[in-house]
Structure formats: C-alpha cells, structure tokens
Design brief:
The chain is an alpha+beta fold. The chain has a single domain, classed as Distorted Sandwich (Glucose Permease (Domain IIA)). Helix content is 15%, strand content 24%. The strands form three sheets. It has an eight-stranded mixed beta sheet with strand order 1-2-4-11-8-7-6-9, with helices on one face. Strands 3-12 form a two-stranded antiparallel sheet. A hairpin with a 6-residue loop joins strand 6 and strand 7. It is globular, with a radius of gyration of 17 Å. The relative contact order is 0.20. The model has no long low-confidence stretch (mean pLDDT 90).
Length: 226
C-alpha cells in the first residue's frame, strides 16, 4: 500500500498534463485565467477536476511529455528544457499519509526547497529485500512533495517495513510549491546522487532515464494506467 486508497475500487481520475490537454493551451489558459505559476490557482484546477469526477485521488504522468514545467525555471534553466516525467503523481489532499510499498532502508533524504522542486524528499533502498527489479539490478524508490515533518527522526540506514508510514503529502509552498501530491518514482541506478534524483528529464535524455526508471505501475497495478 502506497496511499490509503484502494486503486481497484476507489474512484480515481487520470490527469493529463501534456499539450494534449486543451485546458493547457496558452490561449485557453488566458481565457480561463489558469495561471500555473499561481499555485493556489493551479491547485483549484486540479482538485476541481477531481471533485467534478467524484475522484478521491488523481493519478498519472509516467513518461508523459508535460507542459506544466514551463511554470518554473527549475526545469528550464538549462540549455534543453526538462519536460518528460519519470514517475507517477498522486494528487490528493495535504496530510494524506504515505506508506512504504515494500521493505527497504532509508538511503537519503533532504528538503529540495526550490520553486517547482520536490520539497521534502525521501529515497529508500530496496536492494536488500526480496523484491528487485526484473533485470536483477538494485531498486530504489523516491517520495517527493512531502511535509517537512516527514523528514523528522529519519537517518540513513533506518529500516522501513512494507506498510509502514513514511510521512504525509505536503501542502504548498513547503512541498516545492505544487498542488498537493506525491511524486513516486522507481530507479535502478541513483547515478551517485543522494536526497535528490531527476523526476523530469529532457527529450534527448528520455531513453537514458527511462532505462533506469521503470514504470511504477508495474508494481502498483492501477487500472487504466499504462
């Protein structure tokens, strides 16, 4: 269990943040006043969609070519912008508990405190557990956009059991200034990084990162997600 929802039974809304979403067309945004740089407005948009669909949680995003990262220099401050999402997002109310889906130990954690970044982030190492990725490589998981209190009492090497609460989905702005959600990502190689790992890559790096960031839904099995 990752979140306190039954993804086989509870109402779930798959959210699209690519250019295929007509709401995100620049002219449509101007007409509707959907200013994604205003996190309160962005949050009202996300949770309004969920309320209309009577959904408890919004999901989606793996390998999605998104336009929403243009709101932040964090993703466009390089020569080639980063727009390919490498995990699954779970849009739910701030304070929603987050649980470890499998046994692991704390690899690293930190508050990535930039506009549009992860905010409080935890990375678990599952290499010592019975569950590994199909190719036999080490397996790590990342949890982004948490509350700052989620980082309390953590230490590198702390044992985390499957089903144990890791923390909670954070409110904005402490969650990196996003509408409340959990970014969940799997990696088979951390590239030497600690407390942080790209959750979004450029088009030219897409194949490289997808090769080490398997689809989390292969683990979760949420109906309707690729």
């Amino acid at each position: 269990m990752l979140l306190p929802f039954d993804f086989q039974k509870d109402p779930v809304l798959i959210l699209d943040f690519s250019a295929a979403n007509p709401d995100l067309d620049p002219e449509a945004q101007q007409r509707s006043g959907l200013d994604l740089t205003n996190t309160a407005v962005f949050s009202d948009y996300v949770f309004g969609k969920m309320r209309t669909a009577s959904a408890l949680v919004g999901v989606g995003g793996y390998n999605e070519h998104r336009v929403i990262y243009r709101r932040s220099e964090h993703f466009s401050g390089t020569e080639e912008p980063r727009e390919i999402h490498l995990g699954i997002d779970f849009w739910a109310l701030a304070g929603t508990p987050v649980f470890a889906p499998m046994d692991g130990i704390v690899h690293s954690f930190q508050d990535n405190n930039n506009f549009g970044d992860y905010g409080p982030t935890i990375i678990l190492d599952h290499s010592g557990s019975s569950r590994q990725h199909l190719n036999g490589k080490p397996l790590y998981s990342l949890y982004g956009h948490l509350t700052r209190t989620s980082l309390n009492k953590l230490y590198v090497g702390k044992v985390i059991r499957a089903g144990e609460q890791l923390g909670e989905i954070g409110p904005f702005p402490e969650n990196g200034d996003w509408p409340p959600h959990l970014h969940f990502q799997l990696m088979t190689d951390l590239l030497g990084l600690t407390g942080d790992f790209p959750g979004v890559c450029s088009l030219s790096d897409r194949a490289k990162f997808l090769s080490i960031c398997p689809n989390p839904n292969d683990l979760l099995g949420i109906p309707g997600l690729v």
